[in-house]
Amino acid sequence: xxxxxxxxxxxxxxxxxxxxxxxxxxxxxxxxxxxxxxxxxxxxxxxxxxxxxxxxxxxxxxxxxxxxxxxxxxxxxxxxxxxxxxxxxxxxxxxxxxxxxxxxxxxxxxxxxxxxxxxxxxxxxxxxxxxxxxxxxxxxxxxxxxxxxxxxxxxxxxxxxxxxxxxxxxxxxxxxxxxxxxxxxxxxxxxxxxxxxxxxxxxxxxxxxxxxxxxxxxxxxxxxxxxxxxxxxxxxxxxxxxxxxxxxxxxxxxxxxxxxxxxxxxxxxxxxxxxxxxxxxxxxxxxxxxxxxxxxxxxxxxxxxxxxxxxxxxxxxxxxxxxxxxxxxxxxxxxxxxxxxxxxxxxxxxxxxxxxxxxxxxxxxxxxxxxxxxxxxxxxxxxxxxxxxxxx
Length: 392
Hints:
Elements: H1 10-25, H2 34-52, H3 54-58, H4 62-79, H5 84-102, H6 106-128, H7 133-217, H8 221-250, E1 256-258, H9 259-272, E2 277-283, E3 287-289, H10 290-311, E4 315-322, E5 326-333, H11 349-361, E6 365-370, E7 376-383
Parallel strand pairs: 2-4
Antiparallel strand pairs: 1-3, 4-5, 5-7, 6-7
Helix pairs in contact: 1-2, 1-5, 2-4, 4-5, 4-6, 5-6, 5-7, 7-8, 7-10, 9-10, 10-11
């Protein structure tokens, strides 16, 4: 069954129908009879049918297709002796144009052109002699040049349109991939935010409430009051963080945040709730966009949370240096440390993974060094200068 016409086939189909109409119309009246018209019609239908079904009939044997079309042209001369040259002058240029389009081998193209011109000359000499042969060949060359030129430009335009369509499909696919990646990044960011804020906060509250239960049984009202106060503070902090996360999901704000103030609050909160000695060096000040601010604060908060929950440290050294170009953070504790090779089996691994991801998002660098019973060192640098922070 003939499939839907390809764009490159449409000019050939139209031209064959035009040649058929011209041959019938310009045929001399005394030669115009039913037998002649029927023969021409059958020939043109065979020619057009072979062209449209060439891939099905001849598969990859394109040269064979052109040889058979040549035999069909010779048959036409015997069917319509009186007007075969008109059909040849119309069809041979079209077939030559097909050769240039369908054959990839230059030698094969030249051979087929020679083959069809030989058919034209040989049949003409055999049927009507040498009369007007020179004039006919010149006319054939002229028509062939026009048809081939048109075919080349038309095919080139079709191929360019096909390439544009392919490029458009690739762009649409790339856009879909980008949209999927963006959604994935947003989910990862949301997971980090929940872990770094709500999850850690609820874990701290749960630990305090469990401790409160123990002291209630011992009826130590002073300690219970302190623990309850801390738990309430944690709950309020979580409430503020959750509202901030909801606001972040709803809209994007260009508001600038004082980084020094945020870092000081995190250090003060960490030291206030830990029985740990510390040496703190905090220098410089900078106002940055909200998303960068929140990522940096969450990195520091996660480091402090790991020290609080896992390190069992008695001393921590904190150095934070910031300016308009970057923030440089160094945090070291004397805790029990951990084996980085077994990090994935440790309950803190998701938090450490979140630290690495946040630093990567901010185009920064980070190094974490830790050994069992030798403490942990975390050093990270986040650049500010020359970067479009709104893309973070």
